[in-house]
Amino acid sequence: MSRDENTGPSPRTTGRTGTDGRDPGPDASPGGGVERGGIGSGPGRALVAVYGLFALAAGARAAVQIATRFQEAPIAYTLSAFAAAVYILLTVALARGARRTALWAAGIELAGVLLIGTADLIDPAAFPDETVWSGYGRGYGFIPLVLPLVGLYWLLRKRR
Amino acid sequence: MNGGVAAGVIAGALVLALVSLIVAFRNRAMGMVLLIGFAVLEVAVLVQAGLAVAAAVAGEGPSDQVTLYGYLVGTAIIPPAGVVLALAERSRWGSAILAVAGFAIAVMTGRLLQIWQGVV
Predict the structure, then answer these.
(1) For residue B11, how many other CB atoms are within 10 A of its CB?
(2) Chain centroid to CA B56: how far?
(3) Any domain includes A100
(4) Overall domain count for chain A
(5) How far apart are CA B62 and CA B51, in angstroms?
(6) Please, are residues B52 and B68 in contact by the beta-carbon 8 Å criterion?
(7) Which run of H or E residues covers position A140?
(8) Radius of gyration of chain B (CA)
(9) Each residue of A91-129: b (16+ CB within 10 Å) or e?
């Protein structure tokens, strides 16, 4: 995580090229000025943090659900674990600069939140206990719905 | 669980999130103020966790102890994780990460209070 990082006192304004050894890309966006690295630096690192947070939240939730009451709603809890796995995969893929993997995972994430959100609306009885994607991420301020859109935007914008 | 400590943690975390957001908007990387602020927040979170564990061992608190401990561990991990990422990202986005971390601590501590009272 903090490998190869300059933690010295001077704020970094240059030299952030290809931290992950992946396509640095020609675009130095005028907004931030410093994000010149791969998909895991600059705004991408903030995305890594948010995905990491959701990996923690969804992973802990799924672990508790499966460990304590799996029989009550096996499908919902399996989906809960799946959501957690997707968040973990995205966190790692973004941090390591694996663009293709991150794109696939973000696509699956978007499909998952839309499918489970819709299924939950149509048949609430199938989901007696909530997953992070229930009600389009209602329990988490709809961030699970917005996050894949932001992620896909970021990944596609970073295309060569 | 100690309501006063929780209120202090929530208020402090929200202030830190706001300061981090301002720093990010001003296009600055994390400075000493934020670093010390999050260190203090971590100490407060650990004190809160210690008090909660002591009370839970004494028989107070919710029946769902697994969730309780999950939240306590989560809140203890987030400030140092945010600082590590902010040190790696010496730009405004590092400060943005701290804004997320501060907000997450405030929300999770609020949930922790609910869990403790058995609301959900």
Answers:
(1) 12
(2) 20
(3) yes
(4) 1
(5) 14
(6) yes
(7) none
(8) 15
(9) bbbbbbbbbeebbebbebbbebbeebbebbeeeeeebee
- Residue whose entry in the numeric block shows the structure tokens 């917005």: A146
Of B27, B97, B104, the CB nearest to A46: B97
Helix, strand, or coil here: B58? coil
B 65-84 near A (Cβ less than 8 A)? 66-67, 70, 74, 77-78, 81-82, 84
Q: Of B55, B40, B41, whose CA–CA distance to B113 is shortest?
A: B55
Distance CA B17, CA B98 (A): 7
Burial of B58 (0-12, 13-18, 19+ CB in 10 A): exposed
3-class state of residue A123 by DSSP: coil
Give a yes or no: residue A5 inside a domain. no
Q: Name the residue among B62, A72, A148 with its Cα closest to residue A140.
A: A148
Phi, psi of B58 (to 5 degrees): -75, 0
Residue-level pLDDT, tens digit, chain B, 120 residues: 778 999 999 999 999 999 999 999 999 999 999 999 999 999 999 999 999 999 999 988 888 888 899 999 999 999 999 999 999 999 999 999 999 999 999 999 999 999 998 875
Place of tokens 């966790």: B49
Q: Which domain, by its residues, includes A49?
A: 43-157
In order of A14, A45, A132, B80, B83, the CA distances from A37 in angstroms are: 10, 10, 31, 24, 20
CA-only gyration radius of chain A, Å: 18
In chain B, which residues have their Cβ closer than 8 Å to the Cβ of A46? 89, 93, 96-97, 100
